[in-house]
Amino acid sequence: MVGCSQKSVAEILKKHRLTGSVRDFAIPCRPRVTTKRQDNLLVRKCKKDRFKTATQIKAEVLSEYSIKLSTSTVQRRLRGAGLFGRKPRKKPRLTTKHKRDRLSFARSHKNWNTEEWARVVFSDESRFLLYTNDGRAYIRRMKGEEISERCLQKTCKFGGGGIMVCGCFCWSGVGLWWKYLGTSRQIPTLIYWKMH
């Protein structure tokens, strides 16, 4: 008739007799084991190196400041600050020279017209490895930091032997792809040979 069991009704009546109310009283929470200052310390440690795990941060805080925390407490504080564990996006490792050369190229060609770009052949090569390091890495990052430099995992093309594949495209369409044994310096010659 009231949509609950006889036992529930009896418990509610008993509570009313004892307390004069049927409301649930708030259960006192366990006090926080960290202060605001310690929370900020954990966040700073994480932001200094995004690849550090909660366990590593916990160990650092213990050895440097004698603050004893559990790994789950560290994880909760970092999540509370918006730093969630995620797999890092990957990008090729670029040196300062690579970045400078790419920026220089972009600036020197920014005013090219369609006719000029139509005469260009773009090529790319990739090395497919027999053995790769498949170890999973996690980082802590905030929303919108997916491609932030400090949140990326740099990749290198090496390890265990493999096969090199090259392809190209231009204004008129996509060219052939081919495998080859050699160095990337031979690619311009290979492209010319394949296209003529």
Automatic annotation (TrEMBL):
Signal peptide span per the entry? none
Q: Name one GO molecular function term.
A: DNA binding
Q: What InterPro entries does the record tag this protein with?
A: Homeodomain-like_sf, RNaseH_sf, Transposase_5, Transposase_Tc1-like
Among the Pfam families in the record, one is HTH_Tnp_Tc3_2
Superkingdom of origin organism: Eukaryota
- Regions crossing the membrane: 158-178
The alphabetized UniProt keywords are: Membrane, Transmembrane, Transmembrane helix
Domain Transposase Tc1-like spans what residues? 42-111
What's a BP term from Gene Ontology annotated to this protein?
A: DNA integration
**Keyword field contains Transmembrane:** yes
**What is the name of the protein in this document?**
Transposase domain containing protein
From which organism does this entry originate?
Oopsacas minuta
